[in-house]
Design a protein that fits this description.
Layout: H1 5-14, H2 18-24, H3 29-36, H4 45-55, E1 66-71, H5 78-88, E2 93-100, H6 102-110, H7 120-130, E3 137-143, H8 154-168, E4 174-177, H9 182-190, E5 193-196, H10 208-213, H11 227-230, H12 244-254, H13 264-274
Helix pairs in contact: 2-3, 8-9
InterPro entries: Cro/C1-type_HTH, Cyt_trans-like, Lambda_DNA-bd_dom_sf, NAD_biosynth-regulator, NadR/Ttd14_AAA_dom, NMNAT_NadR, P-loop_NTPase, Rossmann-like_a/b/a_fold
Organism: Klebsiella pneumoniae
GO molecular function: DNA binding; nucleotidyltransferase activity
Amino acid sequence: MSSFDYLKSAIKQKGCTLQQVAEASGMTKGYLSQLLNAKIKSPSAQKLEALHRFLGLEFPRRQKSVGVVFGKFYPLHTGHIYLIQRACSQVDELHIIMGYDDTRDRELFEESAMSQQPTVPDRLRWLLQTFKYQKNIRIHAFNEEGMEPYPHGWDVWSHGIRAFMSEKGIEPNRIYTSEEADAPQYLEHLGIETVLIDPKRTFMNISGGQIRENPFRYWEYIPTEVKPFFVRTVAILGGESSGKSTLVNKLANIFNTTSAWEYGRDLCFFASRRR
């Protein structure tokens, strides 16, 4: 990528034409085009400053630190969150890249104790909801179909992820992971420094595989945004004054969960008043 590709991304995000940007920055469209394509060896500092000011960018530009976290998040758990929060605190910008493969994901589900399969939108939604207030986190989905399952296939995967990050304008300085075996692979195949966070699971002793095998045993490690996916809803049916409300309340106490009061009586009452 050229040294001014970040300007191309900023112009695209602002939604302006090259002509509009050029006029606002006090330069011709031709000059701007050559600048963006690194054709000008010694660009005017005054013009660069005006361009950065119009795009809302810092000038002179400070090299920002960019981190990336890879994972399936199948499902997202508190170990992932701990890793991401630690990584987020160490960089200016953090990219979470969620890998998915329909065939692999289906096999993981069939081998699990989960009652329903998390979809790609489910997993993206969990990440988006969990980190919605952290503006320096970006979330992406990366299609890994046709790539040999982890921990194999590093050559093919690294080629694919390089192309993906280039397309998205992601230029990471660091990769964050909890998997010790992955660190040398990232360095070898991507040439990016890798930072290990809690590799021995001393702070957060959980894995996605454990939750897939027994979600309710590891309930405390399932984030608030993910728990509704696993919750089972029980309906009690019966005649009037047959003890349904009492039974529902007792069941909720036993299983340490919430309950809803009977709705049928209110529904019938309001329906009859409308007639």
